[in-house]
Specification:
The protein is α/β, with parallel strands linked by helices and 153 residues long. Strand 1 and strand 2 form a beta hairpin.
Length: 153
Amino acid sequence: MGIDPGTGILGFGVIDVIKRQMNLIDAGVIKTSSKDSDAVRLKTIYDDLKTIIDENHPDQMSIEKLFFSQNVTTGMTVSQARGVVLLLAAQYNLTIFEYTPLQIKLTITGYGRAEKKQIQMMVKKFLKLNYIPKPDDCADALAAAITHIITNR
């Protein structure tokens, strides 16, 4: 399972590997309202992600490490969402792997400064999809999962 952490939008992607072939199981986003309190938003993330884990039974979680240099406030709220994700992973005894955005871009595209569109196209290619996973947060979560699979073959 790959996770692109966020408070407003959290991306997730579940991939299974059978005989070295990656297969998309589930993917999407969890959205919260900016009108809600932080506590309500984090509970929504917790409840929705718990349901996704219960339905898909992943055994490992690949999560994007935080990187922020401009907006500390956004970084703090994303950190809170990331904490909820890590808590759920621990509750379900999922093995946690963390990758920086640079590591993900390098693994997926071969270029550390790849644009979102390039990542989306490569996710489509790796998973042999007929469409580009949308929104970006979903594609980024799948990219985190694919990075883990490639890194640990």
